[in-house]
């Protein structure tokens, strides 16, 4: 036994070390849900769907596989060549230098060949992976755009953006990096193992003794590193959220003299992050040396067994150990350990790519709730006659927002909807463009049920001006034309028509003026005018306006009212009105209360009825002015 | 490694830690370079039966293997493991300590910077100082020290041993390495460029998606889905190309580095075999030499990495330093005194004020007097200078000497903090923190009781709403909790200001988002709660200020008139006009 003392010592150290790790592993429980990778879709299903995207490129993958064999061969052949050189040296009768030289040249050739292989493999993979991901990304983008308003309302924009950007990127890394590494590592492990077995199976068995420990260490480490990583990440997120908020609210903190208190809060978070980082360093500080220990121990065993084998009759289990064997194994050991460790770590990263894939497929699996009917038609020219026939609608089942609304709008008429907040005015307008589908009743455009019209065709005839005018980052011009081709003259003409020309002319860059995110460098009134111009230039037959309630300065207000007056003459117009002046000019006023039409008629008729409209009107005007108005109408 | 004004002190502060780490690092490097020698002994011993050791020759037997290889290697192994652990803890540990200390210092500094700074800087930019830049600095510190010294020691030691074995072969193997460093530096620059293009392409794509999804209602309304997709496809293609271009250059760099490194092996094998052929070297020695060479590969590649890291670190440190060196703007004058009581008289004497970096005056020759305990309304159009008045009373900006007075004292003779102790403010944007409602209301008071919080909430007419939330006063607000409406925000923010019971309260457009009845309620409550204390209402609605003691009408930064509602109605045409217009514009309730 004494003869094998070094082996026993190595075995004991590694054994004790593993035992401690396993013990700690078992003692520290990890919360299941915090693993972050719980998924509903099975791995198999995800792989199948991902492969579907990869399928058109199968040929590329075959090429990559073949080229990979080339680059892997270097890993296996180079130790054999070097040990071959060493064997030549061992010849007791000296050697011919040329024998060595051609081996060196061969070595160089294999090297170059493998490098070319590496290059080709990386580029082909990257190109293929990117193509696959582009397709997936476009699919996701198109799909998200096809979802209805109701569906999108529940999805934060940030999440949707992550789906088409970061999540797809995670998958692209899987195609370009991870899969290639996976196969490469497997090839290398198999190749090295075969080579080692051929050279000396006794020593190979010795090397294999270390394999379970590498896997064990890596698996245990993964748990702790993930935990540490999560803590650091949480700490960072925490501190960043805190910072973002408190830097924005610094004025409040200062005015209320809360600096000291906030500093304490911040410091607590700062310390927490520091402790998390320290924990992470500790985990790595244990693991990295531990893996090194395994490697260097196997080298020690190699030296010991090699020497022992050589000394005790130069033959163990019928195999000769010489210097060349030791050289080959010395090189093979590290080439064998690295891929195994890689593989064990790879699994984790593959899981996170799968998690991203699931998120994307989950989005893709959502069926758009408002879609064209199979035999939906295109409508070319419309007059703009609109009819609601006993329309019932609810955003959430059972909570009726519209309860049997019926009305008729003649082509080219202007209709104003009036009523309290939440009465359903805005809903009527968005039903018309099929932002939502109604549950009961019919909505007709020129006598055709809008469900029978293709959504794209339907919406093309409508000009929607929404209450919160959304402006895209870009220029004034790009916000008006919306990716269509219009000449500057046409754009300016539209702007003039809606009185937007005056403020645009004052801008330093005119139509080319930059519009910042969400148009925050334009006032509410200016945004409103731009949305008018945007609508006018697209020449809709029916216009829909949800009047802004925001404070608009008096001067702009006058411009808006004036251009509204002009727009009313273009075609049919439906307005959710907030301003009396707007209402008064309407051909028909529909008063809505609690999802039902309570009265309709023009301004004068309604005032004379002394009903709900009269009340609303009273609220807004003081008595003097109303009296004056009524007198004028009689 | 980086040096600079704000980082040098940390080398001193954490000197012990760093020195311990470096000692461990040097020890590990030394131990590591012993292994190739054992490798040589085994090979030569197995081949020849004798081994050159300590200048003489020894027989290679189990005795020798045990004493000269196994025992030393045990110690080396233990040494390396312990040493690696120690330097990781010490050196990386010093890095994160520096990060922590700097972050704290930066936040403390941010707390002292005034409104002017925050109006100029984007929060996003500031945040990136706290995240990206700080991380880079940390990396340069901990990792930078480690890499610099490791490369120097390990590289130096191995090189020394190589030179001792054969100087010519060493020089020969250094030529490709020098080429590699030069090439990495050149290609590295190019790669950085490609990397930026790639990041840009990705962020363009991301921005596009962000915009497109945010404005999806418009896109659907104008049936532009397909056009959007085309635009997206174009960006996607660009992103694809940028990725391939980057991969190409980075792969080339990788391949070339491997080529240069491995070509050295070829040189060593070729020339070394010749030495063996000549009998100058043994086979074992050649392998030992290759072992040393393997040890210098990483130090050599580290050179380029270090250079790049240094330039990144320097840039980040400069940005951090810029922040730390930003001068505080609103400061106490040396003779400023702390006050322990404020009655609430406020006087402006011919105040003309212009915000920094703006080319027009926000206030022009403004004079008025607010007596202690008065309820005053400030009214005017957007941009007339109402909020500026509040900013100046609260000393968010500096004012000239002899212009703004509180209790008859020039505000510049009073410390900012002590003055603010007697002021409360309801900001226009109603900034609230993502915290519980209770903590938001009790924000300004250290140990507020639940009753006090409730009283403030009742006064600002929000108590009822709060009790309807799931967790009542402990309901979380903001991203992780409930979303409250603009009107609710305003009322919580009023409650927060009422908690301090300050001598001066300024409400900036604070009841604009509540309906008329609630407004009336709150104004009534405020009248009672603020009896005898100065209260300033900044408003654009006449209904808010109609019943106050005094109304200051501002236009274009100038005082148009001061008086109560009746007086202004009588003598001020602009006020009358405003009243008439507002009644016209009132929305349907």
CATH topology grouping of the largest domain in chain B: ABC transporter transmembrane region fold
What is the typical, i.e. mean, pLDDT of chain A? Answer: 85
Low-pLDDT runs of 5+ residues of chain B are none
At the fourth level of CATH, the homologous superfamily of the largest domain in chain B is ABC transporter type 1, transmembrane domain
Number of helices of chain A: 21
The overall strand count of chain B is 12
Query: What is the number of independent domains of chain A?
Result: 3
Structure description:
The complex is a heterodimer of chains A (634) and B (589). Chain A is of the alpha/beta class and 634 residues long. Chain A folds into three domains: 41-364, Up-down Bundle (ABC transporter transmembrane region fold), CATH 1.20.1560; 386-601, 3-Layer(aba) Sandwich (Rossmann fold), CATH 3.40.50; 605-634, no CATH class. In chain A, 65% of the residues lie in helices and 10% in strands. Chain A has helices at residues 5-27, 43-54, 58-90, 97-146, 149-153, 157-199, 201-248, 250-255, 259-311, 323-364, 425-432, 455-460, 476-481, 488-497, 501-506, 524-537, 554-567, 580-584, 603-609, 612-620, 623-633; strands at residues 386-394, 400-409, 414-418, 440-445, 448-449, 462-465, 474-475, 514-515, 542-546, 572-576, 588-593, 596-601. Chain B is an alpha/beta fold and 589 residues long. In chain B, the strands form three sheets. Chain B has a six-stranded mixed β-sheet, sandwiched between helices.
Sum up the structure in keywords.
heterodimer, A: 634 residues, alpha/beta, ABC transporter transmembrane region fold, Rossmann fold, six-stranded mixed β-sheet, four-stranded antiparallel β-sheet, 21 helices, 65% helix, elongated, B: 589 residues, 4 domains
């Amino acid at each position: 036994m004494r003869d094998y003392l070094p082996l026993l010592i190595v075995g004991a150290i590694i054994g004790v070390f593993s035992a401690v790790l396993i013990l700690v592993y078992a003692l520290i429980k990890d919360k299941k849900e915090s693993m972050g990778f719980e998924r509903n879709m099975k791995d198999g299903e995800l792989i199948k769907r991902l492969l579907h995207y990869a399928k058109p490129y199968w040929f590329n993958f075959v090429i990559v596989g073949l080229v990979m064999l080339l680059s892997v061969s270097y890993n296996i052949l180079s130790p054999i060549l070097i040990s071959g050189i060493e064997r030549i040296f061992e010849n007791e009768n000296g050697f011919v230098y040329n024998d060595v030289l051609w081996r060196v040249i061969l070595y160089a050739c294999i090297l170059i060949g493998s490098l070319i292989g590496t290059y080709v493999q990386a580029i082909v993979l990257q190109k293929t992976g990117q193509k696959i991901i582009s397709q997936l990304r476009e699919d996701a983008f198109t799909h998200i755009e096809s979802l209805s308003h109701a569906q999108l309302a529940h999805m934060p924009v940030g999440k949707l953006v992550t789906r088409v950007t970061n999540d797809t990127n995670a998958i692209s890394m899987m195609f370009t990096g991870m899969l290639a590494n996976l196969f490469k590592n497997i090839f290398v492990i198999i190749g090295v193992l075969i080579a080692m077995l051929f050279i000396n199976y006794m020593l190979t068995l010795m090397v294999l003794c270390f394999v379970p420990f590498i896997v064990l260490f890596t698996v245990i480490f993964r748990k702790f590193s993930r935990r540490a990583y999560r803590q650091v990440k949480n700490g960072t997120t925490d501190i960043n959220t805190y910072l973002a908020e408190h830097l924005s609210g610094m004025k409040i903190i200062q005015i209320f003299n809360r600096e000291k208190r906030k500093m304490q809060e911040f410091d607590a978070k700062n310390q927490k992050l520091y402790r998390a980082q320290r924990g992470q360093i500790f985990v790595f500080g244990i693991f990295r040396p531990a893996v090194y220990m395994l490697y260097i121990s196997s080298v020690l065993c190699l030296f010991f067994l090699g020497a022992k084998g050589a000394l005790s009759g130069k033959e163990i289990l019928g195999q000769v150990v010489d210097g060349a064997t030791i050289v080959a194994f010395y090189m093979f050991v590290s080439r064998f350990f690295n891929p195994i460790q890689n593989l064990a770590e790879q699994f984790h990263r593959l899981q996170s790519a799968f998690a991203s894939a699931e998120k994307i497929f989950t989005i893709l699996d959502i069926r758009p709730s408002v879609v064209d009917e199979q035999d939906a038609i295109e409508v070319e020219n419309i007059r703009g006659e609109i009819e609601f026939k006993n329309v019932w609608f609810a955003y959430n089942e059972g909570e009726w927002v519209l309860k049997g609304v019926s009305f008729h709008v003649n082509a080219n008429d202007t209709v104003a909807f009036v009523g309290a907040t939440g009465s359903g005015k805005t809903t009527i307008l968005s039903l018309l463009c099929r932002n939502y589908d109604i549950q009961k009743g019919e909505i007709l455009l020129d006598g055709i049920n809008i469900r029978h019209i293709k959504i794209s065709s339907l919406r093309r005839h409508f000009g929607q001006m929404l209450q919160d005018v959304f402006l895209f980052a870009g220029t004034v011009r790009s916000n008006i034309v919306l990716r269509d081709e219009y000449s500057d003259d046409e754009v300016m003409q539209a702007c003039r028509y809606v009185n937007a020309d005056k403020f645009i002319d004052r801008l330093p860059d005119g139509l080319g003026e930059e519009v910042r995110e969400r148009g925050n460098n334009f006032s509410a009134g200016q945004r409103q005018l731009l949305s008018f111009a945007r609508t006018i230039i697209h020449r809709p037959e029916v216009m829909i306006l949800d009047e802004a309630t925001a404070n608009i300065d008096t001067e702009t207000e006058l411009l808006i009212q004036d251009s509204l007056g002009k727009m009313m003459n273009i075609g049919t117009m439906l307005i959710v009105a907030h301003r009396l002046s707007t209402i008064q000019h309407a051909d028909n006023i529909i008063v809505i209360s609690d999802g039902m039409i309570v009265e309709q008629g023009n301004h004068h008729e309604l005032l004379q009825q002394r009903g709900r409209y009269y009340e609303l009107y009273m609220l807004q005007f003081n008595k003097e002015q109303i009296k004056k108005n009524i007198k004028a109408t009689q | 490694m980086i040096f600079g004004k704000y980082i040098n002190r940390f080398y001193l502060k954490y000197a012990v830690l760093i020195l311990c780490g470096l000692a461990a690092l040097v020890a590990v490097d030394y131990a590591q370079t012993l292994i190739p020698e054992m490798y040589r002994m085994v090979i030569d011993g197995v081949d020849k039966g004798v081994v050159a050791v300590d200048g003489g020759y020894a027989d290679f037997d189990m005795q020798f293997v045990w004493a000269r290889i196994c025992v030393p290697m045990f110690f080396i192994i233990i040494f390396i493991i312990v040493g690696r652990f120690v330097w990781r803890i010490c050196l990386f540990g010093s890095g994160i300590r520096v990060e922590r200390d700097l972050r704290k210092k930066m936040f403390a500094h941010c707390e002292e910077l005034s409104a002017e700074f925050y109006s100029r800087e984007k929060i996003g930019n500031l945040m990136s100082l706290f995240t990206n830049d700080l991380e880079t600095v940390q990396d340069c510190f901990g990792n930078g020290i480690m890499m610099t010294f490791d490369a120097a020691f390990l590289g130096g030691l191995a090189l020394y041993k190589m030179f001792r074995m054969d100087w010519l072969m060493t020089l020969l193997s250094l030529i490709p390495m020098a080429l590699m460093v030069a090439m990495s530096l050149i290609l590295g620059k190019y790669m950085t460029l490609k990397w930026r293009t790639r990041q840009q392409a990705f962020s363009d794509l991301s921005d596009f998606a962000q915009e497109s999804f945010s404005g999806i209602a418009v896109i659907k309304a104008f049936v532009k889905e397909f056009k959007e997709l085309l635009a997206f496809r174009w960006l996607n293609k660009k992103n694809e190309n940028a990725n391939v271009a980057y991969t190409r250059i980075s792969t080339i760099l990788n391949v070339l580095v491997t080529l240069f490194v491995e070509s050295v092996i070829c040189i060593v094998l070729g020339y070394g075999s010749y030495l063996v052929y000549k009998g100058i070297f043994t086979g074992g020695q050649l392998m030992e030499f290759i072992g040393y060479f393997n040890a210098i590969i990483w130090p050599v590649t580290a050179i380029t990495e270090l250079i790049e890291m240094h330039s990144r670190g320097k840039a980040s440190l400069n940005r951090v330093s810029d922040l730390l060196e930003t001068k505080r703007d609103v400061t106490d004058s040396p003779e400023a005194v702390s006050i322990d009581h404020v009655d609430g008289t406020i006087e402006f004497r011919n105040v003309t004020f212009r915000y920094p970096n703006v080319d027009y005056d926000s206030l022009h020759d403004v004079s008025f007097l607010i007596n202690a305990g008065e309820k005053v309304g400030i009214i005017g159009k957007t941009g007339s200078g109402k909020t500026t008045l509040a900013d100046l009373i609260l000393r968010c900006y500096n004012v000239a000497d002899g212009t703004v007075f509180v209790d008859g004292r020039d505000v510049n003779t009073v410390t900012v903090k002590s003055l603010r102790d007697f002021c409360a403010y309801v900001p226009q944007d109603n900034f609230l923190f993502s915290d519980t409602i209770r903590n938001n209301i009790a924000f300004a008071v250290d140990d507020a009781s639940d009753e006090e919080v409730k009283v403030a909430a009742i006064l600002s007419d929000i108590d009822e709403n709060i009790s309807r939330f799931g967790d009542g006063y402990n309901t979380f607000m903001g991203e992780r909790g409930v979303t409250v409406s603009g009107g609710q925000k305003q009322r919580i923010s009023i409650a927060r200001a009422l908690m301090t019971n300050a001598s001066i309260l300024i409400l900036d457009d604070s009841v604009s988002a509540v309906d008329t009845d609630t407004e009336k309620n709150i104004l009534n409550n405020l009248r009672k709660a603020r009896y005898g204390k100065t209260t300033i209402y900044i408003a654009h609605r006449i209904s808010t200020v109609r019943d106050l003691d005094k109304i200051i009408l501002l236009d274009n930064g100038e005082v148009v008139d001061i008086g109560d509602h009746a007086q202004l109605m009588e003598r001020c045409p602009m006020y009358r006009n405003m009243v008439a217009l507002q009644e016209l514009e009132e929305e349907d309730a």
